[in-house]
């Protein structure tokens, strides 16, 4: 576990306090950990998520379409 001393502004402090109260957390470090988990789930690339891997496996079994001239077929 890493310990850090951080400087946050008043608004961030309020947000952390709201997260603590809403989720019944003991301290602000738990609120920061929760924020990091939510950030990871929502913002970071989905390439390693199990759901993404499953969707790729499902798409591999789909039938492919052969196209002679891709640009002619799909250009506007």
In whole angstroms, the N-to-C terminal distance is: 55 Å
User: Helix share of residues?
Assistant: 55-70%
User: Percent of residues in beta strands?
Assistant: under 5%
Q: Averaging pLDDT over every residue, what do you get?
A: 88
Low-confidence stretches: none
Number of helices: 4
Choose one word for the global shape: elongated
Structural write-up:
It is a single chain. The chain has 76 residues and is an all-alpha fold. It has one domain (10-74). 59% of the residues lie in helices and 0% in strands. Helix 1 (10-23) crosses helix 2. The chain is elongated, with a radius of gyration of 22 Å. The chain starts with 9 loop residues before the first helix and ends with a helix. The model has no long low-confidence stretch (mean pLDDT 88).
Topology:
Elements (H helix, E strand, L loop, with lengths): L9 H14 L4 H15 L7 H11 L9 H5 L2
Helix pairs in contact: 1-2
Question: What's this entry about, in short?
Answer:
Helices cover 59% and strands 0% of the residues. It is mostly helical and 76 residues long.
List keywords for this structure.
76 residues; mainly alpha; 4 helices; elongated
């Amino acid at each position: 576990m890493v310990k850090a001393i951080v400087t946050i502004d008043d608004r961030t402090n309020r947000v952390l306090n709201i997260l603590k109260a809403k989720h019944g957390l003991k301290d602000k470090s738990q609120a920061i950990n929760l924020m990091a988990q939510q950030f990871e789930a929502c913002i970071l690339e989905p390439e390693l998520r199990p759901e993404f891997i499953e969707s790729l496996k499902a798409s591999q079994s789909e039938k492919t379409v052969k196209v002679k001239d891709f640009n002619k077929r799909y250009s506007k």
